[in-house]
Amino acid sequence: MPARMKPAQIEEMFRRFQAANPEPKGELHSVNDFTFLVAVVLSAQATDAGVNKATKPLFAKVDTPEKMLALGEDGLREAIKTIGLFRGKAKNVIALSKALVEAHGSKVPSSRDALELLPGVGRKTANVVLNIVFGEPTIAVDTHLFRLGNRLGIAPGKTVLEVELKLLKVVPKPYLRHAHHWLILHGRYICKARKPDCWRCIVEDLCPFKPKTPAPG
After folding, report:
1. Active site annotation includes 48
2. pLDDT in tens for each of the 217 residues of the chain?
């Protein structure tokens, strides 16, 4: 059974994350709540950088559900064709734009149930929107959080939901608001999948993962 961090170590880890980056920001480009929702839907199985490259010119002209519907599925496909799975994503974005206009007064809804009823929006996307747009202490488990939950021994689990529910229990309440951002950034740039940069890690002394990666050279 892999080693686990103790509660005091978990608290210290997040204290350090907060000290190093008090207000972590997501890396997806958006201009308002609607475009943020669209960006998150487009980011499934794609990189934030790849999504931003396509959406920056798109969102400069299309920033409401009505404008998205006017653009149409063909126009949207053309705009996002560099993003993986773009055909299905274009279909979903047009459908969710229609749903926002017809059922939500063109506003992004603030409830999980309403968000998850929108085409292309699953639990992870809903968690991201609830956290970033509405400030709720949700945790969206992507590949980075799933890896860190298991590797660091803070929330081991075999499914993303299991890791999410464990993280919600073990992350101290003062840190819940930004927890998923700190972990995503840590997983993306330091605690990488194949070869973590342990020598650059600010929580290396707390982490039970072995063996540590030595500094290059």
Report:
1. no
2. 567 899 999 999 999 999 999 999 889 999 999 999 999 999 998 999 999 999 999 999 999 999 999 999 999 999 999 999 999 999 999 999 999 999 999 999 999 999 999 999 999 999 999 999 999 999 999 999 999 999 999 999 999 999 999 999 999 999 999 999 999 999 999 999 999 999 999 999 999 999 999 988 7
User: What CATH fold (topology level) applies to the domain 33-132?
Assistant: Endonuclease III; domain 1 (1.10.340)
**7-24+139-200: CATH topology:** Endonuclease Iii, domain 2 (1.10.1670)
Q: 61, 63, 98, 142: which is the annotated catalytic residue?
A: 142
Query: Can 142 be counted among the known catalytic residues?
Result: yes
Q: What distance in Å separates the CA atoms of residue 181 and residue 201, rounded to the nearest whole number?
A: 16
Give the global pTM.
0.91
The catalytic residue among 25, 33, 124, 212 is: 124
